[in-house]
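Posting for a labmate who doesn't have an account.
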Amino acid sequence: MIKASLLLIGTIFSLTGNICCANDAITVVANTQDRSIYLNRQEVRNLFMGGAQHYGLHAIVLPPNNQTRVLFNTKVIGLTEARIQSYWAQMRFTGRKRAPHEEISESSVLEYLKNNKGAVGYLPAGITIPEQLTVIYSNI
């Protein structure tokens, strides 16, 4: 009886963990003619933190309170929102870099991406990506 209960609890936790992880997936999408581009996590991090501009791409982000942004920051960038805001404040103050363009929602990111060559943004995995956009990173 106890073994069966423990097995059931373990199975529930396992399934819950898988559901959680599936919902935490992020896809990075770009408006580029080069369909062969695929960046690794570090290259995506550098792109969104104002580092080297790969392939002439420029980053688009969501507002700080957006759940997709929170996931992207923790899963891909590896920093909290407070650390990222502090970094960009320092970059603005010293005049070295400008923070990425910010859009208000996932749907506005998609519209911006479709209408701006070289734009790159992140979206929750599972969202329908228009044909003219290219997936350049996914943490699935």
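Reply:
Got it, the structure tokens are right above this. The first helix runs from residue 2 to 23.
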